[in-house]
Amino acid sequence: MPADVFVDTNILVYAHDVDAGVKHEKARDLVAEAWRGSPLPWLSIQVLQELLVTLRRRNVGSREARQTAEDYMQWRVVENTLSLFVAGLDEMARWQVSLWDAMILAAARRGGATVLWSEDMSDGQDYGGVQVVNPLE
What we know:
Layout: E1 5-7, H1 9-16, H2 22-36, E2 42-44, H3 45-57, H4 62-72, E3 76-78, H5 82-95, H6 99-111, E4 115-117, E5 131-133
Parallel strand pairs: 1-4, 2-3, 4-5
């Protein structure tokens, strides 16, 4: 695993969704590999928030969902700041993507990641030095 990878929410959700079949198996293996890596991958406060909300929507208990999010706080986390929001607005305008995808791009860039693991964004797309890779393909 490259040291400069940023992990989007969907990869983490699939890693914990035992009903997701092959996607669960692939994501689970990727996340397990990421835990063994050094340094740990990047994610953002947004990813942690989305993960927690998605787990709760899928009937994961609040204590377990919180613990899962807290576990991922050991990874390298890009904090939400006003300057990150402005960077996200710039990404949104430059690439014509949703605010949420733009904030993921801004956070990945802020962390210095050059690889963004995501199923939601265009596999292979290079966003000015941040390349999207769908590791579930």
